[in-house]
Design brief:
It contains 33 helices and 13 strands. With 767 residues, the protein is α/β, with parallel strands linked by helices. Among the domains are: 145 residues, Tetratricopeptide repeat domain (Serine Threonine Protein Phosphatase 5, Tetratricopeptide repeat, Alpha Horseshoe); 133 residues, Nucleotidyltransferase, domain 5 (2-Layer Sandwich); 193 residues, Rossmann fold (3-Layer(aba) Sandwich). Strands 6, 7, 8, 9, 10, 11, 12 and 13 form an 8-stranded mixed sheet that branches. It starts with a helix and ends with a strand.
């Protein structure tokens, strides 16, 4: 179970020195506001963040009625701090905007500096490192000028965390040293403890493990002299976590570190219980449970984890509760109780869905990838369900298989939401049952990569079947990486052995199940690294997969609009960039490609200097196009915000594409097909490939045709032209039209290598 995000939040959000945040206000003039403000601060110190928010919202109302802008700005800042501690960053941001406006109107430099520092802290929590760098450094300069030592120390601590996130460990150490020295001048033990803890983590990044332990020892001494509070409890928990992590690096001190870790957790539990801080109590008990688990004392670990569950329920802390249900599930597995484990995992997955929006808001380039952070919960549950299907009665098999598939489907949907940073996928939901019913000639293949085996779930007219292949995820992933690498080398056939190995794992075990009803189309719902390769290039020893089957890909069954293409009156918007602009090479055959699309389907044509971002927006607003074809340089990156299509005047980002094309999803007839010719995704980057897989959903299109890597624009033009010509035949599906186009190139002596024809993927609806 992943704890990195929890530790990141601890460092940046929860250990807030409230006294350093609360600026002087005019609250003394208003006894009611002063009393509520104090109640809010007391609630915050006890970890009752929701209660603190309620109190400070009342304070804000009083100040607003009195016209006290300074007091109102402070109230918004306090509310933002509490929302940050809860991990609800969008809400925190809303209040910071209000606080910033009010402080600027009042011309109050001190308040402006505190607000700017908080903006930088939240930017860092959400992975916006460039914005965090700017805000924190500006705030630091201002804090120095104001002579505010406590605020300076807090900002230096956040800068240290920024440098650590950027893997600038030496810079982080220096920033934390400055934070400690500055905090010491004000005798703020809580603040120095926080910097010592973070300093220890940075030193571990430099492999200075003994020095890291010394920093933790100092942090523990600092916290011993502070009164009970939420911040003290969380500081002790973080110290316990870090001592525990040091054990593998300091084996001679293993026993001492374990004992100290245990003591820190127990002290955190005592502290949090003394102030009725159920949230902190839940973390203390849970991590004590994990410590017992490492000693294989599973029943004791489970008892402690159950206490953590109860405390998280009392705190109404779903961001913690799903973790402890997950931990309980793992312990039930080790205790040999699979049924109880499945129930615990189900509860964890249910709770996780309730905090999905918060996890989405906290994602970013510097954050732990969504799949790495929570994917284990879904995969471990699916693994147990697949084991139940394999060992249970025949009547129980298909329900268990469907639940396993649905569990991974939930992860796929949330992973797309996480990649694009919004809820765009919700508009695309349809029912799995309807998809299977409209595809009687297709086999829907759902691979699930598990540590010890590859599970293949396949939907056939006779129902859902399962095949287990005894090869683990790491081995499959290695083979996938090699295939992708060699496929792009057009001058060799080094790809062939890897294409054959993957065929043997992914296809051959299923072909024995076809019987006399061999499917015409194979629809893959790829998982992880499988998103980075074209299945059409798999090879059975005598020929490519595309020579036997039409092939399509969808990022998830519940994301696929199952309605077939309407061939009547297709109207196209054909867009292309053939000229060299913005440092990108010319694509001379693009002009021929987009003119051919325009001749086949009519509609409007935007080529070269007419391919302007505002012009594209205008066309899509005014015309009900059913097909949009874009032939230009395109790049899908790990970060959706850096993915784009190149226009003549600018870059058409995914956000812009969503605004322009995505509005079509709300029409009675949404966009049927979006074609992106000449796109590229980084080799070996599963997350970048996720963006390509989800492009149809992001654009509100039923289908997309796009390339995994950029290829010769001459061969691309030929393939696209063939695809569209076959698409005019009402008897052919889109998958079959693409198959025929790929076979045409495969027969061409210049384009037989799969590097030319294989990267074209038909995404989502293949009918």
């Amino acid at each position: 179970m992943n704890t990195i995000r929890f530790r990141h939040v601890l460092a940046l959000s929860c250990l807030v020195i409230l006294a350093g945040v609360v600026a002087p206000t005019l609250a003394a003039e208003f006894p009611a506001a002063e009393s509520l403000d104090k109640s809010g601060a007391d609630a915050y110190r006890r970890g009752a963040f929701e209660q603190a928010i309620v109190q400070w919202q009342e304070v804000a109302g009083l100040h607003e009625r009195q016209g006290n802008r300074g007091g109102l700005a402070d109230a918004h800042l306090h509310i933002a701090t509490a929302y940050q501690a809860l991990g609800r960053y969008p809400k925190a941001g809303e209040h910071l905007i209000s606080a910033q406006r009010l402080a600027a109107e009042a011309g109050d430099r001190t308040r402006q500096t505190r607000i700017l520092a908080r903006i930088g802290s939240i930017a860092l929590s959400t992975g916006r490192t460039s914005e965090a760098d700017t805000s924190l450094n500006q705030a630091l300069q201002s804090a120095h000028a104001l002579g505010d030592q406590a605020l300076t120390a807090t900002i230096l601590n956040d800068l240290g965390n920024l440098y650590y996130a950027q893997q600038r460990h030496a810079d982080a150490v220096k920033a934390f040293e400055e934070s400690i020295a500055t905090a010491s001048t004000s005798s703020d033990r809580q603040l120095t403890a926080r910097a010592h803890i973070n300093q220890a983590t940075a030193l571990m990044g430099l492999s200075q493990f003994l020095e890291a332990k010394n920093q933790l020892d100092q942090a523990l001494a600092d916290l011993d002299s502070t009164p009970p509070s939420h911040d003290r409890a969380y500081g002790l928990i973080t110290i316990g976590l870090t001592y525990d992590k040091l054990r593998s690096s300091l084996p001679l001190q293993h026993a001492e570190l374990m004992k100290t870790s245990f003591t820190a957790y127990q002290s955190a539990a005592d502290t949090s219980e003394s102030i009725d801080d159920h949230r902190a109590t839940s973390y203390a008990w849970a991590y004590l449970g994990r410590l017992y688990e490492t000693e294989q004392r599973y029943q004791e670990a489970l008892d402690l984890t159950r206490r953590a569950v109860l405390s998280a329920q009392q705190a109404v802390a779903p961001e913690a509760l799903y973790r402890w249900h997950w931990q309980a599930g793992q312990l039930f597995v080790k205790l040999g109780q699979p049924n109880e484990a499945i129930e615990a995992y189900r509860r964890g997955a249910f709770v996780l869905r309730s905090v999905r929006a918060e996890l989405l808001a906290s994602s970013g380039p510097a954050s732990v990838p969504f799949r790495q952070a929570v994917g284990g919960l879904y995969y471990e549950l699916a693994d147990l369900l697949l084991q139940r299907a394999a060992s249970g009665a025949a009547a129980d098999m298909e329900p268990a298989l469907r639940e396993a598939r649905d569990t991974i489907e939930l992860l796929k949907v949330d992973e797309l939401r996480n990649y694009f940073g919004d809820e765009c996928v919700d508009a695309a939901h349809s029912r799995i049952a309807s998809l299977e019913q409209v595809a009687p000639t297709a086999a829907i293949i759902y691979p699930i990569l598990l540590p010890d085996r590859l599970e293949l779930l396949v939907s056939l007219p006779g129902g859902l079947q399962r095949v287990a292949v005894p090869v683990g995820a790491d081995r499959v992933t290695d083979e996938i990486r090699l295939l992708r690498h060699f496929l792009e080398k057009r001058t060799t056939n080094e790809y062939l052995s890897h294409a054959q190995q993957l065929y043997d794992w992914l296809i051959r075990p299923l072909e024995a199940r076809w019987g006399t009803t061999r499917p015409h189309t194979l629809v893959f719902v790829p998982d992880g690294a499988l998103r980075t390769i074209p299945m059409a290039a798999l090879h059975d020893g005598t020929g490519f997969l595309i020579q036997r089957y039409a092939v399509a890909t969808t990022p998830g069954l519940t994301l696929t609009d199952s309605r077939p293409l309407k061939r009547q009156a297709i109207r196209a918007l054909s867009i292309g960039l053939a000229e060299a602009v913005q440092g990108y090479a010319a694509l001379p055959h693009v002009a021929e490609e987009v003119r051919a699309v325009n001749q086949l389907f009519g509609g409007n044509l935007l080529l070269n200097e007419d391919f302007l971002v505002p012009r594209v927006e205008s066309e899509l607003k005014e015309q009900p196009f059913s097909l949009v074809h874009i032939a230009s340089h395109g790049q899908f990156e790990n970060d959706a915000r850096k993915s784009f299509l190149l226009a003549y005047d600018d870059k058409l980002t995914m956000d812009r594409l969503d605004r322009f094309v995505g509005r079509m999803r709300y029409r009675d007839e949404p966009l049927e097909l979006l074609t992106l010719s000449a796109c590229d995704t980084a080799e070996g980057d599963d997350r970048a490939a996720l963006g390509l897989a989800g492009i149809a959903i992001k654009a509100g299109a039923r289908s997309a045709l796009a390339t995994l890597w950029s290829i010769s624009d001459e061969s691309s033009s030929q393939l696209v032209g063939e695809f569209y010509r076959h698409l005019q035949d009402p008897l052919l599906s889109k998958a079959t039209a693409l198959q025929q186009a790929q076979l045409k190139l495969l027969d061409h002596p210049m384009y037989q290598h799969p590097a030319y024809w294989a990267p074209f993927l038909l995404l989502n609806n293949w009918l």
